[in-house]
TrEMBL record:
<dbReference type="Pfam" id="PF01144">
    <property type="entry name" value="CoA_trans"/>
</dbReference>
<dbReference type="GO" id="GO:0008260">
    <property type="term" value="F:succinyl-CoA:3-oxo-acid CoA-transferase activity"/>
</dbReference>
<protein>
    <submittedName>
        <fullName>Putative succinyl-CoA:3-ketoacid coenzyme A transferase subunit A</fullName>
        <ecNumber>2.8.3.5</ecNumber>
    </submittedName>
</protein>
<dbReference type="InterPro" id="IPR012792">
    <property type="entry name" value="3-oxoacid_CoA-transf_A"/>
</dbReference>
<dbReference type="InterPro" id="IPR037171">
    <property type="entry name" value="NagB/RpiA_transferase-like"/>
</dbReference>
<keyword id="KW-0808">Transferase</keyword>
<dbReference type="InterPro" id="IPR004165">
    <property type="entry name" value="CoA_trans_fam_I"/>
</dbReference>
Length: 232
C-alpha cells in the first residue's frame, strides 16, 4: 500500500507545482478552518495573478489577507468582503476583481465542480445584479439563473485528522467549505492537526474520502479568533 501514502513532509513539497495565473480554491470561513500554513507557503513562493475562490479573504495580515499584501490575487470569488480593510480598499480602487457570489451558490458551485456538473439553475440572485447577464429559465412558474461549477488548479484545505491515504475528518464548524473545496481541485492539498494510523478513523465519520486528496501534511496552527467577545 506504499503507493497510496499521500503524506508529504514540507510545505514546499505540499504546494509543488503552483504557478502564477492559476485558480486556487480555499476552504475555511473567516478564520475558522482555514489552511493557514498552505496560504503562507503561497505567499512565500510569490506567485502572482491568482484567481482565488473562497468565502472571504481572511483578515488583514493573516489567512488569505497575506496574499493581498503583495497583490498576488487578481480575482476572487467570495460571498462577502468581511473584516479585511485591505480587501475593501483594493476592491473600491478596482485593483482586484471581486465576483460577489451568494454563499449557498458559492458552496454549490464548488460541489458541482467536484461532482463533474458543469452548471446548475438556482433561484438565488434572480432579479438582482447577481443575475445580470446570466441565462434564465422558468420552472414551475419560478425563474432561475444558470450558475457554472468551479474547478481549481489547486484546492487547499484544513482538516482535523487524516490517515496516510488521505481520508479526512473535520472538526465541528471548521468543516464549513472544506469538504466542497476538497473535491473541486485538480490537485487537492490538505493540512491537518494529526495524521493517524490506518483504521483509526471510523469509516462512517470520514468527511472527505482519500480519493479526492493528492497530498496530506501535518502542521501546527495558530487558530486566531476573528472577533473576541467577552463580558464587561
Amino acid at each position: 500500500m506504499a503507493g497510496f501514502d499521500k503524506r508529504v513532509y514540507s510545505y514546499e513539497e505540499a504546494m509543488q507545482g503552483i504557478e502564477s495565473g492559476m485558480t486556487v480554491i480555499a476552504g475555511g470561513f473567516g478564520l475558522c478552518g482555514i489552511p493557514e500554513n498552505l496560504i503562507a507557503e503561497i505567499k512565500r513562493r510569490g506567485v502572482k495573478d491568482l484567481t482565488v475562490v473562497s468565502n472571504n479573504c481572511g483578515v488583514d495580515g493573516f489567512g488569505l489577507g497575506l496574499l493581498l499584501e503583495d497583490r498576488q490575487i487578481s480575482k476572487i470569488y467570495a460571498s462577502y468582503v468581511g473584516e479585511n480593510a485591505m480587501f475593501e480598499q483594493q476592491m473600491l480602487k478596482n485593483e482586484i476583481e471581486v465576483v460577489l457570489t451568494p454563499q449557498g451558490t458559492l458552496a454549490e458551485r464548488m460541489r458541482a465542480g467536484g461532482a463533474g456538473i458543469p452548471a446548475f439553475y438556482t433561484a438565488t440572485g434572480y432579479g438582482t445584479p447577481i443575475g445580470e447577464g446570466k441565462e434564465v429559465r422558468e420552472f414551475n412558474g419560478r425563474h432561475y439563473i444558470l450558475e457554472e461549477g468551479i474547478v481549481g488548479d489547486f484546492a487547499i484545505v484544513k482538516g482535523w485528522k487524516a490517515d496516510r491515504y488521505g481520508n479526512v475528518v473535520y472538526r465541528h464548524t471548521a468543516q464549513n467549505f472544506n469538504p466542497m473545496a476538497a473535491t473541486a481541485g485538480k490537485i487537492t492539498v490538505v493540512e491537518v492537526e494529526e495524521i493517524v494510523e490506518p483504521g483509526e478513523l471510523e469509516p462512517s465519520q470520514i468527511h472527505t474520502p482519500g480519493i479526492y486528496v493528492d497530498r496530506i501534511i501535518q502542521g501546527s496552527f495558530e487558530k486566531r479568533i476573528e472577533k473576541r467577545t467577552v463580558r464587561d
